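Hi there, hope your week has been kind to you so far. Please have a think about how the structure follows from the sequence. I've dropped the whole record in just underneath, so have a look:

_____
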Amino acid sequence: MQIRKIEPGLGVTGQVAAQDLDAIIAAGYRSIVCNRPDGEEPGQPDFAQLAEAAKARGIETAYLPVGAGLTAEDQAPAFARTRAEMPAPMLAFCRTGNRSEKVAAAARSAPAPLRAGSDAHHRVLVVGGGSAGIATAASLLKRDCGLDLAVIEPSDDHYYQPGFTMVGGGVFKPADTVRKTAKVMPRGATWIRASVARFEPDDNAVVLCDGKRVTYDVLVVALGNRLAWEQVEGLEAALGRNGVTSNYRYDLAPYTWQLVQELKARGGAQRALFTQPPMPIKCAGAPQKAMYLSCSEWEKAGVLDGFEVEFHNAGGVLFGVPEYVPALMETVERYGIDLKFGSTLVAVDGPSRQATFRTEAGEVTRGFDMLHAVPPQVGNPVVAGSALADAGGYVEVDQNTLRHVRYANAFGLGDGCSTGNAKTAAAARKQAPVAAVNVLAALAGKEPCASYDGYGSCPLTVDRGHIVLAEFTYGGKVAPSLPKWLIEGTRPSRLAWHLKADALPPIYWHGMLKGREWLVPPAPLL
């Protein structure tokens, strides 16, 4: 570890590990700032573990990542404030120290840091304007239209992520899956268009990337998880060209459909690889949905028999709820898919069209004409660097009440919380009313009174026209929401297809995001 002193009271260095702390203390440093996002590369120490070790030695820490969508300029005001508030001298680090030096330089020209007090206060502060955050805000305002509620969300666009698979299958257009955030923001909510730099739950405060501080009576964290593309060597550089795609990004889903059409037109011997990383991930069925919709198109065109289709799954089963596996295995056999369990994508060479997988037998490299890659996924880095996080970097909540296990006035839901359910929009739709009821109870000084049962749903598109409608609660218990005579969820169904293609999008835009809790009333806590 080489420390460079770049100005009085401030040094920068490369990656810091817990074993470096004694040397840092010996060098006279009293606080540490991490400017490197967690999960940039395999084996990278987690900031939460470093912070715990530093705290035990009396060293203060802060997490201000530069990367994963945040620039040095974004973090400059928060860095300036951190320097003003934390003990000097301070040591900042990233992978090499360069980002820390850049953010320090940007901080020198940033506005004067805010030191105390609050720039704004709201009774309820929702962090994250995705599916879970907007649905919760809408459910709260449906119950109390005069509630002082704010939503922190930097993006101008709001995405219907379950629709990305249908874009990749040529069923939806990209425009079907996006609306302006201003259009979906619930009436009565204050929209704070900013990113969060850090949480201060002991002070009931959130610090924004511009240095402003927002306090609250009750906090709702709905930030989602992070797609860690960088954990697969070469993947980010390869995306969108050379046959490499992913339905997990809005801008890439159309390329999936383009590749399906290109391979169909070429025919002959083609190899298509589809991957699934280790859990937890958003919608664990989505990797195979992309595969089945592609195969359905090739089958219809009469070219599938000449194709090699492989499913490289880091796990050991096709789907986690056994009742749905037989129908999926019939689909696998129908399309002639070669299942590769225990096979994890670790590297991609786009120009050479080569993908490398880690298996029990060692690394295996496969050529491809099309690669649909699903990225590893991790907790949101701002959450992971806070006292709200569990060991995995997710908001640590009670799985039934969604209330934080240590902070009684904080709640978490959606893809970024610690509940053991499937991470799907259907789960967020069921969680939002529960969170809303329990938030209002907290505001009234009462205990939670509503319970989430772990419900999740995964409409598995086995071909263009049929879906296996998987619905389940905690423990993988099958939990159909419609009568069996209408939809038999364990078998492919055309009615389930129409539910996915025709009914669910308007239910999302005009129901879930408007606080209309159709078929998902909050259950009482027993």
